[in-house]
Amino acid sequence: MDMIGLRMGSRKVAVELTKMDDTDARLIAELRRDGRAALSDLAARLGVARATVRARLERLVAAGEIAGFTVLTRADASAAPVRGLMMIGIEGRGAERIMARLAGLPEVLAVHSTNGKWDLIAELGAETLPALDAVIFRIRELEGVTNSETNLLLTTRRAGRRHG
Questions:
Q1: What would the pLDDT profile of 30-56 be if each residue is shown by its tens digit?
Q2: Nearest CA to 134 among 99, 91, 86, 97?
Q3: What is the pTM (predicted TM-score) of this model?
Q4: 87, containing H or E segment
Q5: Rounded distance, CA 122 to CA 103, Å?
Q6: Spatial distance between the Cα atoms of 100 and 93, rounded to a whole number of angstroms
Q7: Cβ–Cβ < 8 Å for 75, 86
Q8: Angle in degrees, 0-180, between the axes of helices 22-33 and 50-62, rounded to the nearest 10
C-alpha cells in the first residue's frame, strides 16, 4: 500500500495513494447518475457491501479523486431556461480583453478558450429567447469579435443519468 503524508493544519495525516480500479470507476459513475443515492443502494448496484462503499468513498475523497459534491436546485435549472453555446472568433490577440468583457455579462455563465476554428466558447443563459438574442447581439458588437455561431441547448441529460 503506497502512502503519502499530508499536513492538515498542525497535524500530519497519512493518505493512501489512490489506485482506482473498476469498482471505484463504477462507484463514481453511479454517483454522477444519482449523487443522493444511499450507501445501501450504491452497494446493491455495485454488488459490494455497504461498508465497502463507505470505505471507498472516504478513500476517494481523502485522496482528492472526488473533489466535492454539488447540489442542483430547481432555481439553478430554471433561472436561465433558454441556454446556448456561442462559438466566437477573435481578431488578433484580443482574447483576454474579450473574455473579461464576456465575464461581465450576467447572461454569460462560463467562457472557455478552445482550439480549432473558434477561439472562445461562451455558455449563455437567459430567461427568454429575446433576452438571449439581445446578449448574442451585444457580444457580436464587441470590438475584436470577427464571427460567431450560436447553438441553442434544447435538453440536457447528465452523463449516465437514467430516464423513466
A1: 887 777 889 999 999 999 999 999 999
A2: 86
A3: 0.55
A4: strand 82-90
A5: 9
A6: 13
A7: no
A8: 90
Structural domain 74-153, CATH architecture: 2-Layer Sandwich (3.30)
State the Cα angle at 131 between 129 and 137, rounded to 5°.
Answer: 105
* Residue 20, amino acid: M
* CATH 3.90.1150.10 at 3-62, yes or no: no
Tell me if 149 sits within 8 A of 87, measured CB to CB: yes
Q: Which cell numbers hold the place of 150? A: 450560436
Residue 98 has pLDDT above 90, yes or no: yes
Task: For 109-145, write each residue's pLDDT tens digit.
Answer: 899 999 899 999 999 999 999 999 999 999 999 999 9
